[in-house]
Amino acid sequence: MEVVWEAARGPQLLQLGAGVVILMLTVVAMSFLPSLVTYCRQWKVMKPIPGVSPCYPVLGNATILERTGEAFFKQLQTYVEQYKSTPFFKIWIGPLPVLIFYHPDSVEVILSSSKHIEKSFLYTFLHPWLGTGLLTSTGDKWRLRRKMITPTFHFAILTDFLEIMNEQGGILLEKLEKHVDKEPFDIFLDVTLCALDIICETAMGRNVGAQENKDSDYVRAIYRMSDLIQQRQKSPWFWPDLLYSLFKEGREHDRNLKILHNFTDTVIAEKAAELEKTKQTKHDTDGNCKERGSQKRKAFLDMLLSARDDEGNKLSYRDIREEVDTFMFEGHDTTAAAMNWVLYLLGRNPEAQKKVHKELDEVFGNTERPVTTDDLKQLRYLECVVKESLRLFPSVPLFARTLREDCCINGYQIPKGANILVITYALHRDPEIFPDPEEFRPERFFPENCKGRHPYAYVPFSAGPRNCIGQRFAQMEEKTLLALILRRFWVDSCQKPEELGLTGELILRPNNGIWIKLKRRPNAGSE
Q1: Which of 77, 125, 242, 428 could covalently link to 391 via disulfide, CB atoms 3.0 to 4.6 Å apart?
Q2: Model's pTM, two decimal places?
Q3: Which positions ≥6 away from 382 have C-beta within 8 Å?
């Protein structure tokens, strides 16, 4: 009897199991239906826009896109050259539509808008580390945060950081002394570690000694996290959090994230305790660089702990961590890359380097005194050199936005949700605006030569409402460190452009480093 019952129940169980599977598949399909509808609409609306082939439904151009950063960046440049007669073109990264912009008129439509301020989907992979701080937030949160943080970048406050830049620059000079009249060496890491020390001390008030200990857990975690984020952005199979956690890269991501957040949490807690103690003992809290009886300087973190919105509300602990981590992420790699490219270009253009040295001698004589704000104002040719270097090698070679509403650009309909990728590296090489664009000519940025230039033809710090809030800080740091280096040394570059291994990811970096030779300038350092 039991055997007959089991035999009769078998088909029922199979039917029940099949019903459960069908129900689960239906739920999954329904959850993806809105995305599928959006995808089909985007595909249809964007069909008239010129695009890379072959392109397949769902897969898009994934089968032909290069995997390595260097090869992919070259591929993008090839596509720009191929489509240069069109205002923009499209690629599909899997189901993600991306429009490539490289003409100033098209770029202006996006960057000048107060509506299209949302960062691309690809920025979501920064959220575990940076949260939704100034770089990654949007809408009302971004507007409020920008308003609260802007005062911390006031010129008077930035001037206080000049002492830190001079001190860390002095450590860099001593490291570079070891290479004078020696074999070529890669300077990229030396400059980057100096920039990291500067941002750590100015953002958090903590000296991590990166120049003297590049193997500290925090320093290694910063660089490894940046690499992991870049890998994940161009690997769709890493996009779902659950899947990513199953890969060794995902587990490594979590380990490094813990190191970074633990360090920031510790520093914030210490700073908050210091601030409370200062209030209780009625020490100086008027925003001066130094407190009475103390050699500790104010950092961005000190100001964030005191910042309030229009209604008197302070930033939460999490808000502060988001912004400090954002400063750390954005504030050293970009400036370091810019300084490295200046040294590379001056090493290849001796006439320009002679003009820089002449200007430095006029301002500083033969002394090696610290750089002051008055000095920086007088270094006009050096400023043009930095600007021209950022034209040829923008620290951020591409950045992306997501459209929050349908729009029409150059006669093409672009649907809501499309991603706009602005390639500054290509934008800055428009021959109609910059004749002989591959030539290094700092004179392009003399005031008289800038008149009438399209305002969106040169955007190394982005432009419009979401321009870089820290650009004055970056310019001050770059000019200060370059002045310190070039007052003492003559630079010779040892690579041709094709030997750099140019990679455009989060920043524009040379895969093969920046190899230079240093010579001491006559009378450098004499008092």
Answers
A1: 428
A2: 0.87
A3: 356, 359, 360, 479, 482, 483, 486
Q: 357 exposed, middle or buried (CB, 10 Å; 0-12, 13-18, 19+)?
A: middle
Model confidence band, residue 20 (pLDDT cutoffs 50, 70, 90): low
- What is the average pLDDT across 433-445? 97
Contacts of 94 (CB under 8 A, 6+ apart): 58, 59, 60, 62, 236
For 190, half-sphere exposure in the C-beta direction (CA atoms, 13 angstrom radius) is 21
Spell out the residues 6+ positions from residue 168 whose beta carbon is closer than 8 angstroms to its own: 194, 197, 198, 201, 211
Residue 184 belongs to what domain range? 82-520
| CATH code assigned at 158 | 1.10.630.10
Which residues have CB under 8 Å from 47's CB, separation 6+? none
How many domains does the chain contain in total? 1
- 8 belongs to a structural domain: no
Is 204 part of any domain? yes
pLDDT of residue 9: 54
CA pair distance 170, 155, nearest whole angstrom: 23
Closest CA to 154 of 272, 271, 297, 303: 303
Answer whether residue 24 is part of any domain: no
Q: Which two tokens stand for residue 487?
A: 């007052």
Closest CA to 123 of 401, 319, 328: 401
Retrieve residue 206's tokens.
């903590």
Any domain includes 90: yes
Phi, psi of 299 (to 5 degrees): -120, 170
Other beta carbons within 10 Å of 393: 26
Which residue do the tokens 């006559």 mark?
522
Q: Which residue pairs, CB below 8 angstroms and at least 24 apart, start in 175-178?
A: 175/211, 176/485, 176/488, 176/489, 176/518
